[in-house]
Specification:
Elements lengths: L3 H5 L2 E7 L4 E8 L3 E9 L6 H6 L6 E5 L3 E2 L27 E3 L2 E2 L12 H8 L2 E4 L3 H11 L2 E7 L9 H8 L10 H5 L5 E3 L6 E6 L5 H8 L3 E6 L5 H5 L5 E4 L10 H12 L4 E4 L1 H9 L3 E18 L5 E13 L8 E7 L5 E6 L4 E4 L14 H9 L4 H4 L7
Parallel strand pairs: 3-4, 4-6, 5-7, 6-8, 11-12, 11-13, 13-14, 14-19
Antiparallel strand pairs: 1-2, 1-9, 2-8, 3-9, 10-12, 15-16, 15-17, 17-18, 18-19
Helix pairs in contact: 9-10
């Protein structure tokens, strides 16, 4: 409920695009100025705290198309039995800023312990509400994502003129020019393990989501998480059964060490699975090219077709780059999945080697009939049968 006190204490906020358009709104979260790449997502009322903490969103200012965000509040920083955060995809907010039409002030959910406003303020992230997110999304769809700024001002502070704000944004730098994966990758080796693991997976961390870790560990595998620039020799010292190339932010061509690593994995026919950025890195290692999409694929309702079976899936996606599969000719790799909306690549696989990758997030929806079967395919490629890791609990 909006009260007189809350209206009196409102902070002005601005959103400035590098095409010269300025949107005025109300600030929430941190009082701060940030620059970043504006993107939009079609996620609905739930999942916003997962999106905020997804390392793939490093350097991005997120626009939510759903009109009311924050209804469920924000849950506590609790960990599961494996030492992985239950409700968040990393240990902090990774988005640079947050844009919503309306931020819910009084959430209602049994797990909630704070509001979206409080969460952003604690993490030092500015948000802006009461702007036309429909119009902003239409701009990105027609012109493409772009660099810009949002600023939340102190209570009573008057923003600069639109002309001054536009001039300031002209000097903003595209975060994709940075090596974003290196910024969110683990700085030290970490281990996650169930009791009595049946094998070991080394996950190369370009910004891995916690639920990916959980999906592998719950299959009774020990996961050793290593930094983005680990070499083939360093990884093999852990005697893994398989390698996971994780999701992550930014331009895949900046992951030079990872591309070299993946070339060796292909040569050695080592069981490998890639997710999102991992798909792009595998594509580059196999001889393909990557390119930036006009406005990316971000949301939980993206249709994908498996070219081998004709099956269709509704997937969760969060990426701004894609693989150009033309370069895969004579590599032994083939396109495995495509996006039903625009025919962009959604996965590749080697016809003879135990190596594949997908562009979407198979960890997003639990259940036997969805894309989590891909983790089972990874297990099979490593030589494990479902009976070795499947339990009655998995069926619930």
């Amino acid at each position: 409920m909006v009260t007189i006190d809350s209206l009196m204490n409102e902070r002005e906020a601005v959103l400035v695009l590098n095409n010269g358009q300025v949107f005025h709104g109300v600030g929430f979260g941190a009082t701060k100025k940030v620059f970043g790449e504006f993107v939009f997502t079609t996620f609905t009322a739930a999942g916003y705290y997962c999106a905020l903490t997804d390392p793939s969103n490093q350097g991005q200012i997120y626009t939510l198309t759903y009109p009311l965000i924050g209804n469920y509040g924000v849950p506590p920083w609790e960990k599961d039995e494996y030492g992985i955060y239950k409700y968040f995809e990393s240990s902090s907010i990774k988005c640079a800023g947050f844009i919503v039409h309306e931020a819910c002030k009084e959430p209602s959910h049994y797990e909630s312990e704070k509001t979206l406003d409080q969460f952003l303020a604690e993490e030092g992230i500015p948000g802006i509400e009461r702007v036309d997110t429909r119009e902003i999304t239409k701009i990105f769809r027609s012109e493409g994502v772009q660099v810009g700024m949002i600023q939340v001002f102190e209570e009573g502070e008057t923003p600069p003129s639109d002309e001054e704000l536009i001039e300031e944004v002209k000097r903003a730098k595209d975060p994709n020019l940075r090596h974003l994966a290196s910024e969110v990758s683990t700085k030290k080796v970490k281990t996650y393990s169930p009791e009595d693991p049946i094998g070991t997976v080394v996950a190369v961390d370009f910004g891995i989501k916690n639920n990916i870790l959980r999906n592998i560990v719950r299959r009774k595998m020990k996961v050793i998480l290593v930094p983005y620039n680990y070499s083939y020799k360093q990884i093999m010292e852990y005697d893994p059964d398989g390698i996971l190339l994780s999701n992550g932010p930014g331009d895949p061509k900046k992951c030079i060490e990872a591309i070299d690593l993946t070339k060796q994995l292909i040569d050695e026919e080592f069981p490998t699975m890639g997710i999102c950025l991992g798909n792009q890195i595998l594509g580059l290692a196999a001889g393909a090219d990557t390119y930036k999409l006009k406005y990316g694929h971000r949301g939980g309702n993206k249709p994908v077709i498996d070219l081998r079976s004709g099956s269709g899936y509704i997937t969760s996606q969060n990426h701004g780059y894609a693989v150009d599969v033309e370069g895969l000719k004579k590599s032994g790799f083939e396109e495995m999945l495509v996006n039903a909306d625009d025919d962009t690549n959604e996965g590749i696989y080697h016809k003879k080697k135990p190596i594949f990758a997908v562009q979407f997030h198979p960890e997003a929806y639990p259940g036997p009939e969805d894309t989590q079967y891909l983790f089972d395919d990874f297990m099979k490629n490593m030589g494990f049968e479902k009976e070795q890791y499947h339990t009655e609990e998995d069926e619930d």
